[in-house]
Amino acid sequence: MVTGSDVEERGHVIAQYWGALCLFSRNVRLYLVFGTFGGLCYVGLEGILLSLFLLRLGYGLERIGMILSVAGITQLVCSAPAGVWGTRQGPRQALVAGGILYTLGLDAYPLAMFVPLHLRTAWLLATLVLSRAGASLVFVNAAPFLTDSSGSRERSYVFSFLFTLMPLGGFAGSLLAGVLPGLWATALGVSLDEPAPYGYALLTGAALFLPAVATLLATSDPRRRAVGETAPAAAPAADAQPLLRGGAHAMPYGLIGAILLVTLLQGARMGATGAFFNVYLDAKLGVPTTLIGTLGAAAKLLAMLAPLAVPLLMTRWGSARTTVRTSLGVALSLLPLALIPHWAGAGLGLAGAAVLGGMMTTAYHVYTQEGVAPQWRPAMQAAITMAGGATSALIAFAGGHLIPAWGYSAFFVACASLTAASGVLLAAHARLQQAQRVRAAA
Prior knowledge:
Blueprint: H1 4-22, H2 26-56, H3 61-89, H4 91-108, H5 117-148, H6 155-188, H7 196-217, H8 253-266, H9 268-273, H10 275-284, H11 289-303, H12 310-333, H13 335-339, H14 343-370, H15 377-406, H16 408-441
Helix pairs in contact: 2-6, 2-7, 2-10, 3-4, 3-5, 3-15, 4-5, 4-7, 5-15, 6-7, 6-11, 6-14, 8-15, 8-16, 11-14, 12-14, 12-16, 15-16
């Protein structure tokens, strides 16, 4: 039975969200459009078709793992320079350059099907490096750009909307990834066992990403404000305040190192639901591409609204505990992948990881960005992106060797265990920070 107080509470929540939405700056609104297109191409189309394209080119699991590990290595290597660029020149300039580089790499990658066989691997690696270098510039500088472009009142809502719209774009991209190869196969008069339908589908994704780059060009530098204009307030959340110890001018090496280690473990979830997930469905379970795309789309559809709950959870738990609890939830969600060798079990694991992973990422961005002074936000995000790249490379490389030797189940269990360890480590780190604050106040 719905009472008057329930209706009043719901009305208050809606008013909160609407009030925060009205505070979004022009930069924030433009970047949300970019993020939606990014979800469409990077998360949806490329996330599903990249490994399937390699599979159709005749590469085995070990070779696919080697090629995809280069993407993580590139992210690892490029993250620190991307952070330096964002710190010195401002995150907006780095974002624009990253969008352009990513588009060029995505355009060139599927052209490998026209490259002579003896040069094909080199072409794939070179174009993958180009696209991932661009993506690294975006990953490192997006959070500082949004943090600089928002105030403390609406900041958690900004990231919530971003991690809602990205799965929305990913949902559309996953549906396209399931349909486009079939359409191109029909248009070209070839079988879906050929690489061409997947290559042309990736080229279609590159074309769809062009409007996203245009939205980045329309943004302005949030650090160059008109005379007399005040910057948005940047008061940190309560559980982020201990991270500011040591002063605003000193590089917080200890904090960044701790967060880097947490992110290294946290990124293992992407190994379970990333490239090898699609190969598992295709090569191991014999799932058709249309169903693979549908499963990916369904997971993103379920995940779309989950980040919107994060501001409410953070009000009750704080950003640290919200991140910890959702990390442990992600780890549990990965277990059906290991225990149920059926497309339904895989879909269940993917959906759970997508829903809770989106919530985890939202809270984690707020926790880490508000935990340092503004000038160190690109450095913090660079460390996170660097750790993500390292994990991506390690998981891709290890997966290519572990799966043939031990099987997919062992691989998925390992990814779940590492994800759970990230939550435990972050909880210990947050408790240590809290204890230090209590001692300092005593």
